[in-house]
Amino acid sequence: MVGTRTVRRRQEPGNAADVVLGIESTAHTFGIAIIKGHDVIANITDSFTTESGGMIPAKVAQHHGDVYPSILARALEMAKEKAGIGIDDIRLIAYSEAPGIGHTLRIGAAVAKSLALRLRVPLVGVNHCIAHLEITRLVTRASDPVLLYCSGANTQVIAYDEGKYRIFGETLDTGVGNFLDTLARDMGLGFPGGPKIERLALNASADGRTPILISIPYSVKGMDVAFAGLQTNMLHKLKSGEFSKEDLAFSAQETVFAMLVETAERAMAHVGKEELVLGGGVGCNKRLQEMCRIMCEERGARFYCPENQYLVDNAAMIAWTGKLMFERGGVRTAVEDAAIKPYERTDDVNVTWR
Ligand code: AMP
Ligand code: MG
Questions:
Q1: Within 241-347, where are the H helices?
Q2: pLDDT on residue 51
Q3: 48/75 same-domain check
Q4: What's the confidence (pLDDT) of residue 53?
Q5: Could you tell me the distance, in angstroms and rounded to a whole number, from the CA of residue 212 to the centre of ligand 2?
Q6: Is there a single domain that holds both residue 127 and residue 29?
Q7: What would the DSSP string read from start to end of 41-61?
Q8: Has residue 1 been placed in a domain?
Q9: What CATH number does residue 186 fall under?
Q10: Pairwise CA distance, residues 19 & 37, whole Å
Q11: Got the DSSP string for 111-138?
C-alpha cells in the first residue's frame, strides 16, 4: 500500500557510526546500551542473583534469554524519550565476544547477529576487558592510564604499549570478585558476595570498635597475585569459630586490596604512566578506591574512578569500544563469522584504533 511501506535506511559508506547499540553478556549481567556520539543515552542491565549459592552457567544463560526482550525494549524507549532515537537510527551493533562463560556469550552473540541482520548494519565483536579500559577513558579525564581491573572472574593490571593492551600482572587462579563471592557463600550469604563482605568489613569498626586484622597469607608472586590458598585459609578460619565474620571480612579486604594496589603501583612505575583507573565490579568497593587514591597521592599520580554503572559489567562500554574499533580501527565482524571467544586474552587483540 502506497505510503505505508517501511524504507530501511542502509548503512552509509565510510566509517561513521553515530548511533551504536551495544550488548553485554559475558557473565552474570545482560545489558543493552545505546550511545550517540560521545553520549551514553541508555545503559540498561539486569543481573543474575541468588539468595544463597553461586552462578550455574545454564541458569544464567536462561536468565539472559528471559530478560533480553524487555531490556531491549527499555533501552529503545529511553533512547526515544531522551534523544528522539529510533531503532532505524542505529548504525552499528557491538557485542561482547570475549572472554566469558560460553553459555551466556552465545545469548549476546545471537541477539547481536539477529539485530545486525534485521537492521542491515555492521557488527563488531568486542573484548570485554578492553572495553572496561576504554569506557574509563571516555567518562573520566584519564587519557593513557594503567587499569586495575577487578571483576568476578578477571583480575588484571592492564596498560597500553605498542599496539596492544598488555597485561602487566594478573591473578594466577581465581578473580578477586570470585574470591569475595566464595568467602560470602562460605559465610552463608548469597551472590554477589562482594558488597556483603564490604558491609561486614564496615561493621567491624561499628560503634567505635577497633577491627582486628587477622593474619592471612599475602600472596603476591612477582607481578601476579593468587587467591586460592587464601580462600582455603579463610575457610579454615571461618570454620574454627575463633573469629567474627566482621573481622574476617575486614582482614580479607585489607589483605587482598593491598596485594592489588601493590601490583598496580609497580606496573605504573614500570611503564612510567601517571594515571590509574579502576574497572570491574570490585572497583565499587570504597575501601579499594581509598587505597588506590592514597597510593596515587603518595607517588604524585592521578587516580580516576568512574561511577558504578561503568565499573560493573555494562553494555555502554561495549558500544563505545565497538564504535572506536569500527570508526578508527577499521574493524568489522561479518555476521557469518561472528563467534564467541570465551578464552581470548586482553593481549590477543591488536589495538588498531589508538
Ligand atoms: P563484574 O564481573 O565486573 O560485573 O563484577 C562483579 C563482581 O564484583 C562480583 O564478584 C561482586 O561480588 C563484586 N562486587 C560488586 N560490588 C562490590 C563491592 N562493593 N565490593 C566488593 N566487590 C564487589
Ligand atoms: Mg567485567
A1: 245-271, 286-298, 308-311, 316-329
A2: 76
A3: yes
A4: 67
A5: 31
A6: yes
A7: EEEEEEE--BSSS---HHHHH
A8: no
A9: 3.30.420.40
A10: 7
A11: HHHHHHHHHT--EEEEEHHHHHHHHHHH
Distance, CA of 49 to CA of 61 (rounded, Å): 12
Dist. CA 194 → ligand 1 center (Å): 5
* Beta carbons of 163 and 351 less than 8 angstroms apart: yes
Do residue 117 and residue 27 come from a single domain? yes
Mind listing the pLDDT tens digit for each residue in 201-221?
Answer: 999 999 999 999 999 999 999
Query: Rounded distance, CA 53 to CA 184, Å?
Result: 10
* DSSP character at residue 284: G
Position 352 pLDDT exceeds 60: yes
- For 75, the grid coordinates are 533501552
**Best probe residue, ligand 1, of 49, 128, 156, 180 (max atoms within 8 Å of C-beta):** 180
Whether residue 5 is predicted with pLDDT greater than 60 in this model: the reply is no
92-98: strand order across its sheet: 39-47, 29-36, 19-24, 92-98, 123-127
